[in-house]
Amino acid sequence: MSAMNIEPKFLTLPEIAPGTPLISVVVPVHNEAANIPPLIAAISEALAGIEHEIVYVDDGSTDASPKILAEIAARLPSLVRVRHRNSCGQSAAVITGVKTARGVFIATLDGDGQNDPADIPAMLDGALTAEAQGPRPVLIAGHRVTRKDSEAKRWGSRIANAVRGYLLRDGTPDTGCGLKLFRRAAFLELPHFDHIHRFLPALFIRAGGRVVSVPVRHHQRTHGASHYGTWDRLKVGIIDLFGVAWLQRRWKLPHIDPTP
Asked: Which residues form the Glycosyltransferase 2-like domain (predicted)?
């Protein structure tokens, strides 16, 4: 679905004040210098005609990433850049990006160019369609149906998704996909911790929300190598998994009666 097809629906949202972006695209990066220019160009093309901003969070890169981001920001007003002095991890970068962003909606995607920004307009449309069914917060989660990763990485993800799905009952086939979309205000209400980006479906459900998984494209990495690892995070991931399960048990969602 093209941006021009969905723009009129978005412009009817009453809470969007003049000058406020409809969507902020948050991109965490660590040493992804070669992938930055083509990905920013792809995001700008995908969201042409939609009020947006692009928020890059440089998570303590030691390559040319800061220099490249500064050069692009000088000629692209929609680019906002934030830098962590030291690498704090992908989730910390996502949280920093969401807090910095001004958009009503947030789309997150990985900085390696494997997610396709062209999927974002359809995800925006899907979020509004889901919101029309009720006031509950909505998370649109990308599902990489055809992954362009190594066999070991795909198997690791299958195992991790199966274990997580069994324990958390989040009904999401691919929580590791970096391409997700949600309202900024809903995200800011969630508990924040390291590796939160892998548990957003469970946390949205805990908050009374709903999760809609949609198929998205996935491309092979063309430059560099992964800097955030797979589930060599495994030991840490298991600890986080039980932590989120604890959070689920330690919260009862209040249902507010209307005032008579």
From this structure: 24-187
